[in-house]
Amino acid sequence: MTIPTEPIGSIPRPDYLVEGLAAFEAGRLSPQRLGELQEMALADTMDRFAETGSPVVTDGEQAKPSFATYPLAGLDTLAPDGVVIPFADGHTRQLPRLTGAPFRYRHYADEYLRNAKEYTRIPVSAVQLDFTEGRLSLKLDPSGGLLRSFVDLNNQVLNRFSDEERKKIGVHTCPGGDQDSVHSQDVDYAELLPMLFELNAGNFYLQLAGEADRRRVLESIRKNHHGGQRIFVGVTDPIDPRVETADEVCERVLEAAEYIPPDRLGTCDDCGFSPFADDTSTSREIAFAKITARVEGTWLAHRTLG
Questions:
Q1: What is the DSSP letter of 71?
Q2: pLDDT for position 124
Q3: Rounded to an integer, what distance in angstroms lies between the CA atom of residue 171 and that of residue 211?
Q4: Count of domains observed in the chain
Q5: For residue 256, which of 37, 183, 190, 222 sits 20 to 30 Å off, Cα-Cα?
């Protein structure tokens, strides 16, 4: 038995790319030069992922403005005055608003996948869908109506895939992570999980390391998850600047194995390390150190569990 371990989303961009993105937005950098900087960051990210020993790698979202808005980047039917998301430390993020029909994405994930595959021979093994809006939706609408509509909408897409294909599709959820703060950790996980597990996906990536009472969350996972679903638990916390040790990660995996059958268990990071491109609250060095700890600690737990 091997316990799978996977990263979640973003890696902090190098300084030259953060500066380049700001210059591009200000009209001081050409699209061609920005593309060159993004390619440099992508190549470095893939190399550093390989150095961690991670069996799964990603592009770290180096070329995306954010995990939430990249499909819309460059559309001329958007206004900047969309919904405002407040974070616990007082800062906010504002999403764009659609101003006209028809609505079509301008960018799709396969564009980034093709670029990333130029820098690795590791085959594509899984697809992650981000569902950070799950817990946030309960904050906006405690009745659960908004969450229900999100689950139903996502299932309209997921139901198009075969059972075998859905085994490779996963859903990640967390209380948001931006500039070392969160937007919905005050929402009880137990209110989200029953409906979350109704999503017709094979894998679930759940933020856990940053929870104050992990065992309470694990008990709720045990109670609500469906047979056949694999549960990846977060064992590293991107918001905490301290790098976890491999032994700490191992202990968290063994704790989770008391509630989740080891053959249905996996590990991940709680969240992406820089979901918005301008978030520099975590360094690349810390991010990759945490990923290394996750990989090594998961292996220790695998050896312990046999």
A1: G
A2: 75
A3: 19
A4: 1
A5: 183
Least Cα distance to 25 among 305, 17, 258 occurs for 17
* 143 pLDDT more than 80: yes
Residue 63 structural domain: 5-305
Do 234 and 218 touch, CB atoms closer than 8 A? no
Q: pLDDT-derived band of residue 161, with 50, 70 and 90 as boundaries?
A: very high
SS3 234: strand
Over the stretch 215-242, which tens digit does the pLDDT of each residue have?
Answer: 999 999 999 999 899 999 999 999 999 9
Please give the single-letter amino acid code of residue 31. Answer: P
Largest CA distance in the chain: 57
SS3 content of the chain, % helix, strand, coil (to 5): 40, 15, 45
What pLDDT does residue 1 have? Answer: 56
Q: How would DSSP label each residue in 5-19?
A: EE--S--PPPHHHHH
Q: Taking 80 as the threshold, does the pLDDT of residue 170 lie above it?
A: yes
Nearest to 278 by CA among 17, 79, 29, 57: 17
Are the C-beta atoms of 169 and 202 separated by less than 8 Å? yes
CA distance 147 to 293: 34
Task: Please enumerate, as own/partner, the contacts of 184-188 that have beta carbons within 8 Å and a separation of 24 or more.
Answer: 184/135, 184/136, 184/138, 184/139, 185/88, 185/135, 185/210, 186/88, 186/139, 187/135, 187/136, 187/138, 187/139
pLDDT the model gives residue 172? 97
CATH number at residue 80: 3.20.20.210
Can you tell me whether residue 166 is helix, strand or coil? helix
Which amino acid is located at 277 in the chain? Answer: A
Q: State the residue for tokens 């007082």.
A: 90
Q: What is the DSSP letter of 226?
A: P
Check: CB of residue 7 under 8 Å from CB of residue 57: yes
